[in-house]
Amino acid sequence: MSRLAETLANIPLATLSIMIVCTIVYMYQFFVDPPMHHYTMCPRLVIYMSEYYRFITSSLFHGSIMHIGMNMMSTMAIGSSLEKRIGTLAMATTILWGIQLTSSIYTFISWLLYITIGYEHLMNQHSVGFSGVIFQLAVLEANLSPDRTRSVFGFVNVSSKMYPWALLVILQFIMPQISFLGHLSGILIGTMQSHGSLNVFFPSDEYLKDSEQKTSLAFVLKQPSFVSMPEAGTGLGRRREGSAGFFEEVGGSIALFVKNICETLKVMIFGRGEGSNQNIQMGNLGAAWGGNDSVRDDEGWNGLPTIAEERERLT
């Protein structure tokens, strides 16, 4: 068995499947060379032209071979680790919903900034790549990881739960052309999912366990790379009872987001002081993982409402 075949054999089924899908899509891009702006995420086209298919295509298409290569290596590393902890069926639903939810919150934030403060740059911006979902998976994996610290590019060690937030900030400094909002959307969805705020979208552990016994899924269940759900469950989205519990979950997601962002900025910019930096070790800068999202602005919007027209309509 070649080294490549051995590596592929060790990748769990759901992770391998999405990698294959993204690779096939990129092969279509390479040989057919379709107009990229037809498949990117552009909030204005989604909202005003009802091009909802962009929710899916923007995650599956990539801007270059380096872009897809970095994203697929990240998917292999993070996705494999997470899938082995939660099982293949839970991983599959997480990816499928993640593609739609990260695109949805990306669009919502762009629209909210547009109608409240008149900031229309994000509404016109085109972005593409799987890295938003990768950041969602990174949050889930970090919350389930038994490791207390993790290295960021071999340069600095941070606590595991801070890891995605540190990546968000550092990657933006290293590659300012990438889609900050796309990565942030993935972190927001991952945080809400891990706190149970999105349980309405995801099947329960009991349902997933019963699904693993269904004969209709026999072909999938027999695959060597299929990972059964652990007996203890996935560990994701523990639901609290009642409406008060729901609002507590949502508040916890928001509070954790603010806390982690503030702590990341503090460590990256100001430091913690000699006595508080025992879990942070400086080293040499290694190769960065992640996706270099292809981002482009469009200025000529024919037939789309201007910001003044939108404000007038809303008032």
What keyword list fits this structure?
single chain, 315 residues, mainly alpha, two-stranded antiparallel sheet, two-stranded antiparallel ribbon, globular
Helix/strand/pairing class, anyone? mainly alpha
Order of helices and strands: HHHHHHHEHEEHHHHHEH
Shape: globular
Strand content: under 5%
Q: What is the number of beta strands? A: 4
Q: Describe the sheet with the most strands.
A: 2 strands, antiparallel
Q: Oligomerization state of this entry?
A: single chain
* Distance linking N and C termini: 66 Å
Helix content: 55-70%
Gyration radius from CA atoms, angstroms: 20 Å
Helix tally? 14
Low-confidence stretches: 239-246, 274-292, 294-308
Overall mean pLDDT: 80
What does this structure look like?
59% of the residues lie in helices and 4% in strands. It is built from 14 helices and four strands. The longest helix has 30 residues, at 88-117. The termini are far apart.
What topology does this entry show?
Elements: H1 3-9, H2 13-32, H3 43-49, H4 54-60, H5 65-86, H6 88-117, H7 121-124, E1 125-126, H8 131-144, E2 149-152, E3 156-159, H9 163-174, H10 180-194, H11 205-211, H12 218-221, H13 242-270, E4 296-297, H14 307-314
Antiparallel strand pairs: 1-4, 2-3
Helix pairs in contact: 2-5, 2-6, 3-6, 4-6, 5-6, 5-8, 6-8, 6-10, 8-10, 9-10, 9-13, 10-13
